[in-house]
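On to my pick:
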Amino acid sequence: MLTDVLTCFWRFYLLYCLPFFLFDDITLWLLLIFACLMVFNFVKLQTVVLKVGMSCGGCVGAVKRVLGKMEGVESYDIDLKEQKVTVKGNVQPDAVLQTVSKTGKKTTFWEAEAPAEPATAETLAAA
């Protein structure tokens, strides 16, 4: 992926920026625009929340080790009490699930809580 970004950058620079370098300051603006486009197109940070069967500090350490080695992970938070692992970074959810599963702990995606239904006249009358 990094080689794709660099290749794209050099092609852009050689075709659009270099010819204008001696004539105008538009080169800097083009580079800035290109850099912004690259950041928004190639770096897509995601948050992945997992339920991991952890019972002790050793389990937490095992999860920390595998997440620390995983490429693209920016940060992670491990809550032993809730058995919840939150991972943020340029990662794919399935890849995070597989990586944490390598610890031997039961790992699933954290189920989002269902939103509470608004109270209607019928439900209030029934109560």
Remarks:
- Strands lie at 46-52, 73-79, 84-89, 107-109.
